[in-house]
Known about the structure:
Blueprint lengths: L1 H16 L1 H18 L1 H4 L40 H37 L1 H15 L3 H16 L1 H19 L2 H15 L2 H8 L4 H9 L4 H20 L2
Helix pairs in contact: 1-2, 2-4, 4-5, 4-7, 4-8, 4-11, 5-8, 6-7, 8-11, 9-10
Amino acid sequence: MNATASALSTVRTTVRDHPLAAVAALVLAAIALAAFAAPLIAPQDPFDLTSFDLLDAELPPVWVHGGDSRFLLGTDSQGRDLFSAILYGTRISLTVGVLAVVIQAAIGIPLGLIAGYAGGTVDSLIARLADVQLSLSSLMLAIIALALVRAGLGGETLGRFAVPLLVVVIGLAEWPYFARTARAATQVEAAKDHVRAARALGASGARIVSWHILPNILSPLILVANTQIANAVMAEADQ
């Protein structure tokens, strides 16, 4: 109950002190909800070729002269409803972005914590590995992976597994952003008195990292996650 009250108090404080951030969060939540409810609210399935009619092609939005009330934002050259296409496309983009960032965080944060806390040879090895990975463009890796799958398994298989493949490739390609942020923040946090006290009291390295360091470095990691979701969506859109 206390945790719930504390969370509600934090939300109220955030809304009061940062109203624009609260409005942005509500808009984002509305977009995400609309995207994932696309099958329920979209007037047309953009993947169902039988629902298209070439006679409806290139219609303007409904508020423009010549628009059709069936198509809120108009249609494309195939007669596909643009509003429906945006809803379904947003769902795919958000799925790719969020899942790719989950993979990045699952790899990068533990490696960054280990590098920042252990230091020495371990830190140097992980840092060099991150440097090598960053030298490889995620877009280039995605293009290579998609080309290999198409050549080896055919276009039909690529069509079925294109989204999961993009998630994995983008996730594996950009974990160094989380690792570098976690490493730098861990080095700062590890030098503080409360961590030194825990070490002096005999706490294990794993406990210190998980209980005394990780909770205190979440803010920069959340900022990286927000940026990386946008980057993942842009990488997915380029494919």
